[in-house]
Amino acid sequence: MLVRLVRVARIFRLVESSSSIRAILSTLYISLPGLSNITSILFLILFVYSTMGVHLFAKVALTSNIDAHANFQSFGRGFLFLLRAATGESWDHCMYDLASSTPGCVSDPPYDPNMCGFNDTEGCAPLNGCGNPVAYVFFCSFTLIVAYMMLNLTVAVVLEGFVNSQEEDDDSILVPELLEEFQYKWAEIDPTATGFIKVDKMLAFINAVAPPLGWIGIPLPMTQFFRYACKCVFLQAFATFLFHCGLMYGFYRCAPDTFI
After folding, report:
1. Cα–Cα distance between 172 and 166 in angstroms, integer?
2. Which of 106, 101, 56, 103 has its CA nearest to residue 81?
3. What are the structural domain ranges in the chain?
4. Which residues contact 5 (CB under 8 A, 6 or more apart)?
5. What is the domain class of 176-254 according to CATH?
6. Bridge-partner residues for 240, per DSSP?
7. Which residues contact 131 (CB under 8 A, 6 or more apart)?
8. CA-CA-CA-CA torsion sign (202, 207, 212, 213)
């Protein structure tokens, strides 16, 4: 048992040593308040639609898709039914069955507690209510709100959490000031904005940019730099250095473990 606990503890050591995992956990932690708000809104939407579903479709006859587990005969089953529909599972088939009328059905039958579904005992009265065309509006609006709007809101909250976690990280490479300085120094050497500079001016440019995108005040490891720079086809073909190659090299220096 003790050995297993030690093995589990290795996971926490991995989290401390991996910057990528720490970034993910930091994003999740920052996003929790926003995700809890979205969850509350989603619960409210499910509550409202479940109540509407019971009022509109509780007495609709059962079919192959509207069965004992997926129906609006009670609030609880309706809530679980909509929760399943929110994942996109057969919601269109259920919508069609709730909007269609089976042969011999009764339009809006009076409520009878002895009907099958409300009272599943031997000899219960068959549930034979007709469908309601409102089901098309009901399910289309529900799917639009939950599957699209709520999903986009969730993604937006997670992205905002990621940006905030990057801003709180002192080692973040996404610093606008560094990028502006890189562009300004490049413009001094390339005033016409061609996107290229001559190789003989390349070292002067790198030495004029502050770390971590440049090497100002730091001894320049020539071997490492040329190993990366020579991968650029523009450098080999035209004896020029591409703007984006220099920028990517700076990113590589900032985060070599996550650079792809």
Report:
1. 6
2. 56
3. 21-168, 176-254
4. none
5. mainly alpha
6. 198
7. 57, 60, 97, 98, 99, 100, 101, 102, 105
8. negative
Q: pLDDT digit of tens for each residue in the chain (260 aa)? A: 666 666 666 666 666 666 667 777 777 788 888 888 888 999 999 999 999 999 999 888 888 888 888 889 889 999 999 999 988 888 899 999 999 888 878 887 887 777 776 776 776 777 788 888 999 999 999 999 987 788 888 888 888 887 777 666 555 555 667 677 777 777 887 777 776 667 667 667 667 776 666 656 555 555 555 554 554 444 444 444 555 555 555 545 554 444 44
- Residue 176, burial from CB neighbour count under 10 angstroms (0-12, 13-18, 19+): exposed
Buried b (16+ CB within 10 A) or exposed e, 222-254: eeebeeebeebebbeeeebbbbebbeebbebbb
Q: Amino acid identity of 259?
A: F
Return the CATH number of the domain spanning residue range 21-168: 1.10.287
Write the CA distances from 30 to 15, 25, 35, 198, integer angstroms: 17, 9, 9, 45
**Single-letter residue type at 73:** Q
Q: Is the dihedral of CA 188, 259, 25, 45 positive or negative?
A: positive
Eight-state DSSP code of residue 197: E
Provide the residue type at 90 as one letter. S
Q: Percent helix, strand and coil across the chain, each rounded to 5? A: 60, 5, 35
Q: Are 49 and 104 in contact (CB under 8 A)?
A: no
Q: Is 159 helix (H, G, I), strand (E, B) or coil?
A: helix
